[in-house]
Amino acid sequence: MARIPFSSLSFTFIFVISIFNLAHCKTLKRDVKALNEIKASLGWRVVYAWVGDDPCGDGDLPPWSGVTCSTVGDYRVVTELEVYAVSIVGPFPTAVTSLLDLTRLDLHNNKLTGPIPPQIGRLKRLKILNLRWNKLQDAIPPEIGELKSLTHLYLSFNSFKGEIPKELANLPDLRYLYLHENRLMGRLPPELGTLQNLRHLDVGNNHLVGTIRELIRIEGCFPALRNLYLNNNYFTGGIPAQLANLSSLEILYLSYNKMSGILPSTVAHIPKLTYLYLDHNQFTGRIPEHFYKHPFLKEMYIEGNAFRPGANPIGLHKVLEVSDSDFLV
């Protein structure tokens, strides 16, 4: 009879023991307590799918719907919570902030009300925070600036008011920032320009004021920015020639503001500029020929301004919206 090498036996034994331990890991009591508190506050639409006492499953029962767990040492912890489009009614569940291992929190398309609690800053491992399409109110808590791992922040389609906290500039890995369709006021903090990885900034449909010059006053700002949505606000002033320094820019959406002045030819030298929306402002003068010769510019919409006769749009205008889901990766 052939002998099985000792090394193979050792590996098999260790593998079996590991699988046994994995199957019998307990969920951290902190996370069990937090999820059961959330379960008690969310209402029947979620509760019917959350069966058993352990959100990570207890052997006979699977994990709760929308709950993802991982094994850390001898315990399981909750790393993702996705409960969206189930008409949750009521205040933001503060117990969520006790799930300290969360990397993704997605409660979008519900009917959550009230403020985001400042305890949100406890979720240091959070990468994706999606609260869009709710009825959340009050100011955006500056404590979000403590979420150093955050890459995606979706707060659009709520009723947030007050100013955009400059603390958002403390998020070194932030790539996508969606704040459109709220009631935000004041100026855009220029500190956002220091975000080295920010690709998409959308603050459209708010009550913001100020100028583009103020926003880009920091040298070397917005090095990775591709999409800048400032539409439907109260921005004034002109388009500064320095905007051409945003060499990664592809979409510039300035529609429905109170901007004025001429269109500087330097903007036509942004190498990948593809969509330029200037409509319904107070721009004047000629449109430089460079824009009509740009190799990538597909759409330039100019309606509702005071450009000189002979100025023509480029392409067929359509409302340009980038789906949030395109970036939820």
UniProtKB/TrEMBL annotation:
Keyword Membrane: yes
Pfam families: LRR_1, LRR_8, LRRNT_2
Domain of life per record: Eukaryota
Magnesium keyword on record: no
Keywords associated with the record: Leucine-rich repeat, Membrane, Repeat, Signal, Transmembrane, Transmembrane helix
SMART domains: LRR_TYP
Leucine-rich repeat-containing N-terminal plant-type domain sequence ranges: 29-70
Segment forming the signal sequence: 1-25
PANTHER family linked: LEUCINE-RICH REPEAT (LRR) FAMILY PROTEIN, LEUCINE-RICH REPEAT-CONTAINING N-TERMINAL PLANT-TYPE DOMAIN-CONTAINING PROTEIN
This protein's name: Probable leucine-rich repeat receptor-like protein kinase At1g35710
Organism the protein comes from: Cicer arietinum (Chickpea)
